[in-house]
Amino acid sequence: MSHPERPVAPDAEPSPPSDPRRWWGLGVIALAQLIVVLDMTIVNIALPSAQRDLGLTDGNRQWAVTAYTLAFGGLLLLGGRLGDLFGRKRSFIVGLIGFAGASALGGAATGPGTLFAARALQGVFAALLAPAALSLMTTTFTDPRERGKAFGVFGAIAGAGSAIGMLLGGLLTEYLDWRWCLYVNVPVAALAVAGAVVLLKDPGRRTGAQLDVLGAVLGSAGVLSIVYGFSEAESRDWSDPLVLALLAGGPVLLGLFALWQTRARTPLLPLHVVRDRQRAGAYLTMALITIAMFGVFLFLTYYLQGIKGWSPLRTGVAYLPMTVSMVVGSTQISARLLHRVPPRVLIMPGLTLAAGGLAFLASMDVDATYLGHVLPGICMMGLGMGATFMAAISTATARVAPHEQGAASATLNTMQQVGGSVGTALLNTIAASATTGWLTDHRIDLSQRTPQVKAALAEATVHGFSVATWTSGGILLLAAAVAGVFLNAKAPARKTAAPDDEAVPTPVHAA
Question: Is 230 part of a structural domain of the chain?
Answer without folding.
Answer: no
